[in-house]
Amino acid sequence: MKIAIVGTGYVGLVSGTCFAEMGVDVTCVDVNVQKIENLVKGIIPIYEPGLEDMVLRNVKAERLHFSTDLTAVLPDVQVVFSAVGTPSDEDGSADLKYVLEVARTIGQHMQQYVLLVTKSTVPVGTATLVRQTIQSELDKRGVVIEFDVASNPEFLKEGDAIKDFMSPDRVVVGVESDKAKELITRLYRPFLLNNFRVIFMDILSAEMTKYAANAMLATRISFMNDMANLCELVGADVNMVRKGIGSDQRIGGKFLYAGCGYGGSCFPKDVKALIQTSEQNGYELKVLKAVEEVNAFQKQVLFHKLQKRWNKDLKGKTVTIWGLSFKPNTDDMREAPSLVLIEKLLEAGCHVRVFDPVAMPEAKKIIQSKMADLIDNSALYFATDIYDAALEADALLLVTEWKEFRMPSWGVVKKTMKGSLILDGRNIYDKNELLDSGFEYEAIG
């Protein structure tokens, strides 16, 4: 079976590579010439554990191909996945220009049946626009060619994306015809031989399922962060509270960890888009608005702790940040809490020393672009390792819970730092161990 995937970002490249791994002949298409040239050379544009080896293996086996020309690929495929970006507009709604451009291209050049499957996260009702766009281009050409549209939202966790794709909990598919359903079933059957679980539904429900899933996960995170902030005020321990409520089977323990806010490409964007969709339909999603408000506050919670500890006098202090990416096992800096924290610290006159095992190049690019007016030669330092980052620091802030941050040599850290304050933004350290090592320690909640 031959398919094309348009867009070689996180979703498109992982999906295409995993399909190829299972024997599908895949061509990944992108208008970014440099990106395609790099992929042909084996240069991967994103960090995802195991992805590089899988790409190289399937390119060598001639199951995975790369192209900048969708029109050249169309004659050979029945199924085209659209995995292009849907960035947020200023009002929070999803920008569909790339999604509709794929539909226009297909309508302008298709010569035979095509099933266009939207894998990008798109607002409810997008499939109707996609169908209308393709049909409009066919009408302009004066031809009648059968086609279908479908929705197949992705549920990949960055850092575990290959496992999620190869052994999914479920595959959600919205279809309108038996033919589309049969093609999708054939395509996914190898992944689900042990537990064949494709959940077919109407397209509108499939589009909504993606947003609802991310909104629920974001809600659990913000709920626990809200509880953590209250726990600090009343003297309770949010970790004990988490264990207590997580043992209830109706609640479960996942996504109940308090921290310094969520980020990434999905949760912030999807929450905003769902709020915008509700407003366009005359309804207010009050819970999700609160979720967003709590998260915005939580990204500043470590800064507020420093202000409280130092009586709002941060000027000249040296602050270390361990972890820059929005979560471990990725170099994704989109909406990362570290960016908010770094900006607040620089504005307060701090010297900031940062380290991340993977995301340093991406972080440097973003920080230098967005905070150029705050940076001078001494204000921000990109360290070579965790101990270099801690050099002469008055405080050390754990922001992203990479594994290599979990068991550092606290003796070395103590000798390296000037001060002794540790702020644990992910609640991964043992308080008693750090107190015994001579540190002042504070976590979330």
Question: What would you note in describing this structure?
Answer:
The protein has a 6-stranded parallel beta sheet, sandwiched between helices. The longest helix is centred in the middle third of the chain and has 32 residues, at 203-234. Helix 11 runs antiparallel to helix 12 (286-298). Helix content is 44%, strand content 13%. The chain is an alpha/beta fold. It has helices at 10-21, 33-40, 51-60, 70-73, 97-109, 126-141, 161-166, 178-188, 203-234, 238-246, 267-280, 286-298, 301-309, 337-347, 360-370, 386-389, 410-416, 431-436, and strands at residues 2-6, 25-29, 64-67, 79-82, 114-118, 147-151, 171-174, 198-201, 318-322, 351-355, 380-382, 395-398, 421-424, 440-442.
SSE inventory with pairings:
Layout: E1 2-6, H1 10-21, E2 25-29, H2 33-40, H3 51-60, E3 64-67, H4 70-73, E4 79-82, H5 97-109, E5 114-118, H6 126-141, E6 147-151, H7 161-166, E7 171-174, H8 178-188, E8 198-201, H9 203-234, H10 238-246, H11 267-280, H12 286-298, H13 301-309, E9 318-322, H14 337-347, E10 351-355, H15 360-370, E11 380-382, H16 386-389, E12 395-398, H17 410-416, E13 421-424, H18 431-436, E14 440-442
Parallel strand pairs: 1-2, 1-4, 2-3, 4-5, 5-6, 7-8, 9-10, 9-12, 10-11, 12-13, 13-14
Helix pairs in contact: 1-3, 5-6, 9-11, 9-12, 11-12
